[in-house]
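Running this now, will post back.
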Amino acid sequence: YSMRSTPGFILLFSLSVSAHDAFVLRPTPSQVVKKSVTKHLAADNPDADEVPTPPLETRGGGSPRAKLPSTLPPLPTMTAYRKFALPCLGLWVSGPLLSLVDTAFVGLSGASSKSAEQLAALGPATTFFDGATYLFAFLNVATTNLYASARAQAGEDSDRAESVVRTASRVSLYCGLGLTAFLFAFARPLLALYIGPKAAATPGLIDDAVAYVKIRALSMPTTLVLGVLQAALLGAKDSVTPLIAILYSTIVNVIGDFILVNRLKWGLQGASMATTLAQWVATIALIGPARRELVKNGNLEILRKKTIVPDGVSGRAFLGFAAPVLTLILGKIAAFGFMTHVAAALPGQPVTLAAHQIILSLFFFVSPFLEVISQTAQTFLPTFFAPVKDYVVSRMKEDASYNVQNDAKAQEWFAAATTVGTRLLGLGMAVACVVATLASLIPAFFGGALSSDVAVQEAVKPLAPYLFAGCFLTAPVAVSEGILLARRELKFLASVYIVSTTLLPPALLRIKKLQEPVSYVWGAFAVFQLFRASCFTLRIWGNGVGKKLIGESGNVAPTE
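Update: finished.
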């Protein structure tokens, strides 16, 4: 089932924002700090990207100054990256895994006719629910970045770091309760719109899909809380504990599906009950370790705020960071939604749409291998960037003539942050080369493993080069996005996604109007990826290029 349309407010929102920043190069990390300092010194600017900095030390009764450690932390090794990234990869695939378990049990249990009907309802139900969950992934991104930064700025056991966890937990619970009520109220009309009038008219399909979504909706509050606790532990560089909780969840899901679907023959409703129970178990399993590792007194204060932290991260500051991240997620949803919409309208159906869905599934399979490196950047980079940012803020407050370009100590920290980012980019490109090659070989030479239909096998072959390009370019996109998130370049990220999301749909609709082959859809996606990769990498590493192109002085920060 394809996404029939993309919400119009995405396009309306894009028209209201200036996009010129998408084409401005970011000279150096030190100039990133200089620009953010200017905003920080403005009087209570409500539009600032930055959360409040921690208290500054007072030396000899003079002006306050943040203390920059005399020695740099050791640069992360490949072993450290591997120990973090491999368990994190398991977390990335856990959500689709739960839906896959449901699909397998529903498809293999009961009479073939009944199984086909329930699978027809399960497809849109799982993608609809997973999409709703993914929409709130901005909470997880905000938690990881703010928590990792707070640990680097104020200390691993600081009250400010704990305030991030408590605020994120409360916000996620409230969002989960609101989303549960929303799904109960609007699941039926939204699902009918999602699958289209023809499929919605199939007897029993919409009823089964709605029942599945409503039962799964009962787990939404705990699912979002689970997500932010996982994100906080990742910010603490602990990716093993969340993986253990997900392992418990998977075991419960498999046992629950076996009993409720295979033995009791409860079908789709049994599968949704098993998955809901599994989500509850995972949350319960993670709350204990989270209380021990993330807060000193063991109280997450999920239901109500008890601890007042003067320099803590408030709900407003948390959502201020998270809101631009939502733009990134909406941009991704819109891109894939338009691609599927156009592919469904091209000649040669149903083979054309089948070929598109196969390539899309392969792309989604590859993506976690690269997104996990983005997560690694968001976790490791604040250790090097956050302390020097606070140091420069305090120096510019006390000395208006201070020039960060002439501060050798600050530049040493910036250089270390750049080294970490560059190494992660190299790692991402190496991983992308391997996984993109393997993924593209499947439609090119092993189409029989994807479909028994000869026509579909032939239809996917021309798409293999475009799949390789899309997967390979995901590496610079994902890694650079993680670095920019760690550097709090939120408005720049949002502007790039708004521009690309605005430009891609007209190109795709032109392909639809001209009834071009589906390879044009994936060619447009490759260009979409190339545009984002160029904007992001030039923003981070384009210092020399930017100066040559626009003659920019090294002491002038670009305007945002």
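Residues 1-28, 36-64, 544-560 have pLDDT under 50 and may be disordered. More later if anyone needs it.
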